[in-house]
Amino acid sequence: MMKFYPTEKVALFIDGANLHAAARGLGFDIDYRRLLTEFAAKGILVRAFYYTAIMEDQDYSPLRPLVDWLDYNGYTMVTKPAKEFTDASGRRKIKGNMDVEITLDVVRMTRHVDHIVLFSGDGDFRRLIEHAQGEGCRVTVVSTINTNPPMVADELRRQSDMFIDLADLEKTISRGPTREAHHEPAEADYADEFDVE
């Protein structure tokens, strides 16, 4: 089994809506301070990117406190306005796909890191992983097969150098009673509205 090495430079790429949906499917909330600490201990953490779309035209976005907290606590935030539309059955939906932003940042960072950790199960990233590997980076995918249906595409898992099931990280990165000690806001329940692949 592959592992992390203390001397390798690591970058995290977190697809916010996808990770939130996976954690919710497993029945826990993520403590982002603990997540950062967990991966900083595995190597030299160069950057932790967090990607999410935000409803810009609302007076208050339930996601805004989390985005602000992450921005001030070690994450590089990448946001864009979400788009609202009505689907074929007349239901209001919000689309906030961040695939292009994630792809551009991974391609840019392959020159600066040894190990990329992608928090997403989206099969569209298979070619991106292949590209990063071709540039000499090792790639770990973090998602889950322990939901029904699984949140990770089989082709993504097969392409990665290492797959970490989010369920195996629950004890180390889940939000516990210590949350109040550092005032991390609760993750907004925005995945219901967003299209998650």
Explain this structure:
Helices cover 34% and strands 24% of the residues. The protein has helices at residues 16-26, 32-40, 64-72, 99-109, 126-134, 154-159, 166-173, 179-182, and strands spanning 9-15, 44-54, 76-81, 83-86, 92-95, 115-119, 138-143, 162-165. The longest helix is centred in the N-terminal third of the chain and has 11 residues, at 16-26. The strands form two sheets. It has a six-stranded parallel β-sheet, with helices on both faces. Strands 4-5 form a two-stranded antiparallel ribbon. By secondary structure, it is α/β, with parallel strands linked by helices.
Entry summary:
The chain has helices spanning 16-26, 32-40, 64-72, 99-109, 126-134, 154-159, 166-173, 179-182, and strands spanning 9-15, 44-54, 76-81, 83-86, 92-95, 115-119, 138-143, 162-165.
